[in-house]
Amino acid sequence: MELIETIGEPNVGLLIDAYHCYTTGMKFEELNQIPIELIVHVHINDAKAIPVSEILDNDRLYPGEGVIDLVSFLKQLNAIGYKGAVTQEVLTQSPPTISSEELWRKTANAYRELFEKAGL
């Protein structure tokens, strides 16, 4: 946050990523400590049910398919006043084997379900 302040430009801020919050053990309540104006973008994705020490950055799941409590994550972001973009970032070790249309439906359904459960 000091670096953002030092740069002092309106297009520089924090990207909050649910996957990295999970893998670093960050509690979603800790988002309260970040000035809302510094959060410029949010990524959602999910993690396999394996020990965090074995999780790979390029082996993510689609939102709602894993163990990250994305509903609580979205609720916390809403509680602190975040109103910006929430985008999916699913990094995998191999390319998807289903069509673009199927991937789009999968994503749309995951978003719809998560945001409904979060009451957003």
Give a nutshell description of this structure.
It contains 4 helices and 3 strands; from the N terminus they run αβαβαβα. It is α/β, with parallel strands linked by helices.
What is the average per-residue confidence, as pLDDT, rounded to a whole number?
A: 93
Number of helices: 4
CATH class: Alpha Beta
Q: What's the CATH architecture?
A: Alpha-Beta Barrel
* Beta-strand residue percentage: 5-15%
CATH superfamily: Divalent-metal-dependent TIM barrel enzymes
Q: How many strands?
A: 3
CATH topology: TIM Barrel
Distance between the termini: 28 Å
Write up what this structure looks like:
- By secondary structure, the protein is α/β, with parallel strands linked by helices.
- It has a single domain (10-117), classed as TIM Barrel, CATH 3.20.20.150.
- It contains four helices and three strands.
- The chain has helices spanning 2-7, 18-23, 70-79, 100-117; strands at 14-17, 39-44, 86-88.
- Strands 1-2-3 form a three-stranded parallel β-sheet.
- Strand 1 (14-17), helix 2 (18-23) and strand 2 (39-44) form a beta-alpha-beta unit.
- The chain is globular, with a radius of gyration of 15 Å.
- The two termini are 28 Å apart.
- The mean pLDDT is 93.
List the helices and strands and how they pair.
Elements: H1 2-7, E1 14-17, H2 18-23, E2 39-44, H3 70-79, E3 86-88, H4 100-117
Parallel strand pairs: 1-2, 2-3
Keywords:
single chain; 120 residues; alpha/beta; TIM Barrel; 3-stranded parallel β-sheet; 3 strands; 33% helix; globular
